[in-house]
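Thread: Newbie trying to understand structure tokens

Hi all, I'm a second-year student working on a class project, and my supervisor (Dr. K.) asked me to get a predicted structure for one chain before our next meeting. I've only ever worked with sequences, so writing a 3D structure as a token string is new to me. If someone could post the tokens and maybe explain what I'm looking at, I'd be very grateful. Here's the chain:
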Amino acid sequence: MRNFLFIILILFSVDRAIGQINGPIKISENRRFLSQHDGSPFFWMADTAWELFHRTTREEANFYLTTRAAQGFNVVQAVALAEIDGINSPNSYGEVPFHTIDPLVMNESYWEHVDYIIQLAETKEIHIALLPTWGDKVFKNSWGEGPEIFNEENAYEYGQWIGARYADRKNLIWVLGGDRNPRNDSKDMEIWKKMAEGIEASALPGNPILKTFHPQPNKPGGSSTWFHESDWLDFNMHQTGHCPNQATYRIISHDYNLSPVKPTLDGEPLYEEHPNCFNAKELGYSNPDDIRRIMFWNVFAGGAGQTYGCHSVWQMYTLDRQPINGPLKPWKISLELPMANQMKHLKQLMLSKPYFSRIPDFEMVVSNQVDDENFVIATRDIEGSFAMIYFPTGKTVEVDFSALNNAEFKANWYDPRTGVIFPYLGLVLSKGKNIIQAPSSGKGQDWVLIVD
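---
Reply by user tm_fold:
Sure, no problem. This is what the structure looks like when written as tokens:
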């Protein structure tokens, strides 16, 4: 076995008593959702900041986390061994992760910066979904920087090392993978398994930290394709990718219906201001309407939350850095894009009703539908106390409320763009089939009907 040197931890430089997070998030009792440490609902509302540890100073990290906390985000996805040449290109303080790669010898100065940001996030009540490494360090592929440094032996010991370093953190979720799907006839699955086992070997019994896997786009399953029955995988994650014209609710629904039951969510959807399908010349850039539709679809289909991403922010783009796939503006400016400030409306809506008893209901909308941007989707309480129907383009549809209690219902419209609620003024809604017409129609005219 290769030598693997461990460096003694120094005391962190941020006061650990400041944060309000009392423990890691958990799987809910019904295994469908996530919960706070005390058992109350936790709606995963994440931002994608892959290069946070690699490309920000402490002052910049504070600016970023303060902004996202104010916008309602409670999770930030970031990578310890970053995508953009994270092994050889130094961080903002001139430090790289390792003194040597073979054997892996840790550079304590680099990891102190990671420590600082994780603790800083806790003071903002933000959980860090921490990728121990980007996937190109296992499988470089045509677009990765690499180098491929992990094998079955050192993956376990790296997992054990990084797992021990952060075993007592209250605001952590482990995310294996990193934009790579395990290859057939390769050792990739075993390498990720060994890294997960190393992390688990260092876990503290009183502080269980959840683990998942971040894949590339893959249909119909995401992480479930390879790891669903693995004991180390606590919940499933998808990357639905960067095209606007996908029926992402089908992808979430696939994992929702698997056995054993595990929560599922979209960990990388279409980013804001991202070239559609990586083809800006012909397809232009993403817009808030498409991003919002994907997010509501996913959650109504049974997702335990939703990740947001901005193309400039994930790479912490500045004008003096080489751009990746055409970011439109520096990351600090992009923090205030429309969807970054609209994500909270989705979280607030889902937390406004009984949370753990919510189920998707594809049968509630009885009108004929095809899988396009007009697809209307419903979710409801399993006890029949409420339903919510999402109209992505304001299409008029027939809805069947037979699963709800009582003979007549009160209803309100919810504006996903603003969070404003106003009364439904149509005909009285009653048990059985009803024709529902949204307040307006067309692209970007999406609405949620809340029925109690």
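A couple of things are worth pointing out once you decode it. The first strand starts at residue 26 and ends at 27. Residues 108-123 form the longest helix (16 residues). Feel free to ask follow-ups in this thread.
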